[in-house]
Amino acid sequence: MQSLTNTPTRYGWAMIVLHWLIGIVFIGQFVLGVVMVRTTSQRTSFELIQLHKSFGFLLLGLIILRIAWRLGNAAPPLPASVGTLERRAAPLAHFALYAFQIALPLSGWALVSVSTLEIPTMPFDLFVMPNLPLTESDAAESFWTSAHWYLAYAGIALVALHIAAALRHHFLLRDSVLRRMITPSSGGE
Predict the structure, then answer these.
(1) Fewer Cβ within 10 Å of end Cβ, the chain: N or C?
(2) Contacts of 42 (CB under 8 A, 6+ apart)
(3) What is the widest separation between alpha-carbon atoms in the chain?
(4) Where are the transmembrane segments (predicted)?
């Protein structure tokens, strides 16, 4: 039987599902963000922005859940074949991924909070999300727009590096690093 929690050699179902769901939403958010600012139809752009905000709040909730789950479920150690430098870099890379996945939705939330347009945010049309207690101004909106843009591009670059590292482990090093995030642990492991 496969386990919900991590074992010493593999991740459990909870971490695997959160990992891939967050990855898909994160990459999807980047694509949606690029498309929504290039759309010429104001109505379509508005709808895409609302969808982008909805998925941003979903991403924030999922990453908080993942971090909480991670704090209670130790990650399996890297295989013995992984070198010292990579062993030291891996936790820093994961920390950076978590930081960007939190910073991006928060910067987006800050952006809509300071906007002088005062358009309410309604995640998936379920409720009105309150704004952060920030002062509305064109200057603040410009700052948070830039911050959100730079964080998005840096975050997607970090995700690309993460994917490249996983593929390197799988195809070149032929170790279990990627497989353990695909196939869940079994309770008896």
Answers:
(1) N
(2) none
(3) 58
(4) 12-37, 90-112, 150-171
